[in-house]
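Our consortium's second objective concerns turning raw sequence data into structural hypotheses that experimental partners can test. To show how far this objective has progressed, the report includes one record in full. It was chosen at random from the queue rather than selected for favorable results. The single chain below, 110 residues long, was entered without modification.
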Amino acid sequence: RFLFTTEGDHPDTLKQLLQGLGKQGIFSYTTTGSTLLHICCLHERPLCLGALLDLGLDVNETNDYGETPLHWAAKFDLPVTCALLIANGACVQAEDCDGNLPIHWACEHN
């Protein structure tokens, strides 16, 4: 349900689903450790991203590969999403497991 909601960028629906599940729902992960923030970046859903940030998700949480949501937003050339993440405390110097910063991802993929 979360994936569908974040893919549709419906923050009100997402908030309703998460409120029903409490913190367990908010801190959901994929099989590779990616968070709902990562998924919002993958699918370019800034409204849901903002809603999740308002709920207190860690903007710098990494997946199993050391990738932050900012790495993903940089990879997919999402300047508005990058700005939102940085404004909410995303570390621009965060290194993934290979030592790459978000700016490296932006240069490599765009």
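The partners drew two points from this record. The two ends are 31 Å apart (CA to CA). The chain is about 55% helix and 0% strand. Both points have been shared with the crystallography group to help prioritize constructs.
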